[in-house]
Amino acid sequence: MPNKIRTVIGDVPADRMGRTLTHEHLLYTYPGGEYDHLSAFRLDDAVERIAKELKAGMEACDYRTIVDMTPCEVGRHPELMRRVAKATGCNVIAVTGFFPESMGVPYWFKRQTVEELTEFYVRDITQGMVFAGTQTDIKAGAIKIATGQEGVHPKPSPVGPNGRHISSSEDRLIRAAGRAQQRLGVCINTHTDPQDYTVTNPGIEQLDIIEEEGGDPGKVIIGHAFVAPRDVEQIVDICRRGANVQVDHIGIPWRHDSVDDLDEQIATLMSEVAERGYLAQMTITYDRWFFNPRGPATDDNPQLLNEKVPLDYLYTSFAPRLEKKGFRTADLETILVDNPRRILGF
Ligand SMILES: [Zn+2]
């Protein structure tokens, strides 16, 4: 059994994780946002706002742990995460890693070899993350990898030099993640693009590379796998490899016309995956943005839909929908507690 998780305020015994959301964002911007007047913010105010929302959700639903999946170049802010963790008592796991190349991966890191990138991840996890040129003692506890195209006019990813729908920079970053995973035992949590499921199985492509480098598929969570698979077989294929699949975007109609449309699709797929015997390989989360410094979500700014979903939505709206499909509430507890402990603990 895994014995610990690595949070932004130190290691915590894995049996104290409780209900865990595996993909959230305390702070979310886009690469470059940290230089823009439009998204400048006061740290004290941001911490207060984020902590208030998170604490309310924790009290309503007993969430105890979240993975903050904000990658390095998307405003990742170690001190903000640490202050929110202290203010709320929530176990916050930070990630090392990057966005898809179409939206991120700074040139600095595009130049680096697989060996150098492996060392970067390992140092983020064992020594602490660097923020604005300063070494901190705040450590990451998981690795993020990502593939797929930019999201405004989504298209499938082109085939890269490796024959996969993955660019050469992403390929190196994924290889490094596989090596760092093997060395440290930490989880790799991934971003796949829903569009890519129309031309390939992006989860399988990511797993191929991770396993080529000696990584353990049992410690991998394939993210966004329920948003637009061609059918349930694509999800089952990922589970058959021994990897885990993440349910996310409940209450957030990403790449869908309505909340109802996506929630119904996700609930149907979840029931099918459970029926096929893979209950122990699912995690569930929102992919919520607690704070986007560009401003609050409005009808005029639908890109901020990820801010609107209330933290108790899982229980008030989504669980009843699942129950109608024969999915038991006790099974939800397996997905929220037992599975994340096994996957994120090391
Ligand atoms: Zn996300």
What's this model, at a glance?
The chain is an alpha/beta fold and 346 residues long.
Number of helices: 10
What is the percent of helical residues? 25-40%
| End-to-end Cα distance | 8 Å
Q: How is the main sheet built?
A: 8 strands, parallel
Give your account of this protein's structure.
With 346 residues, this protein is of the alpha/beta class. 37% of the residues lie in helices and 15% in strands. The chain is built from ten helices and twelve strands. The strands form three sheets. The protein has an eight-stranded parallel β-sheet. It is globular, with a radius of gyration of 18 Å. It starts with a strand and ends with a helix. The structure holds zinc ion (ZN). Zinc ion (ZN) binds next to loops.
Record the SSE blueprint:
Elements: E1 4-7, E2 10-13, E3 19-24, H1 43-61, E4 63-68, H2 78-88, E5 91-97, H3 107-110, H4 114-126, E6 130-131, E7 134-135, E8 142-146, H5 168-184, E9 187-191, H6 202-212, E10 220-222, H7 232-240, E11 244-247, H8 259-275, E12 282-284, H9 313-324, H10 329-344
Parallel strand pairs: 3-4, 4-5, 5-8, 8-9, 9-10, 10-11, 11-12
Antiparallel strand pairs: 1-2, 6-7
Helix pairs in contact: 1-2, 4-5, 5-6
Bound molecules: zinc ion.
